[in-house]
UniProtKB/TrEMBL annotation:
<feature type="transmembrane region" description="Helical">
    <location>
        <begin position="6"/>
        <end position="26"/>
    </location>
</feature>
<keyword id="KW-0472">Membrane</keyword>
<feature type="transmembrane region" description="Helical">
    <location>
        <begin position="110"/>
        <end position="132"/>
    </location>
</feature>
<dbReference type="InterPro" id="IPR025461">
    <property type="entry name" value="ABA4-like"/>
</dbReference>
<keyword id="KW-0812">Transmembrane</keyword>
<feature type="transmembrane region" description="Helical">
    <location>
        <begin position="38"/>
        <end position="60"/>
    </location>
</feature>
<feature type="transmembrane region" description="Helical">
    <location>
        <begin position="80"/>
        <end position="98"/>
    </location>
</feature>
<protein>
    <submittedName>
        <fullName>ABA4-like family protein</fullName>
    </submittedName>
</protein>
<dbReference type="Pfam" id="PF14108">
    <property type="entry name" value="ABA4-like"/>
</dbReference>
<keyword id="KW-1133">Transmembrane helix</keyword>
Amino acid sequence: MSETMFGLAFWVTVPFWAAMIFLPRWSWTQRVIGSPLIMLPTLVVYLVLAVPVLPELWAVVSTPELAEFRGFAGGADGAALLWAQVIAWDLFIGRWIYFDGLRRGVPPWVMAPVLLLTVLLSPIAVLIWFGFRAVRPARPGHDRREYESAVGA
């Protein structure tokens, strides 16, 4: 089961990533990505993996020690569980970068590589995005209607 859930954790996010990267200005993309519920499929995978190992998971996260964490993550259940958590977090970060890019009027050809890097190495992508934000402030009113309608503001 762990191997199946491991793969599923990623594949349930692919449509959202594809929409943000390849169809960033499409109204349906903005509407769908505007909902934080896009993370729900991955979080369901996480819960399916977490419930059977909840006592071990709790022990590892409540009193973290490297050896115990390594032992937990080294097993198939622990690795799949942590993968689902990472994938959900990456999507959360990618969603934020996507909407921040819209607000700043960032062209899709700039956003696509940043979002792709977010899928692969989100901590590095976030650092790059913070640097980008420092040199490109938000543009008042730019894409504001689309952004606000997408996020329900």
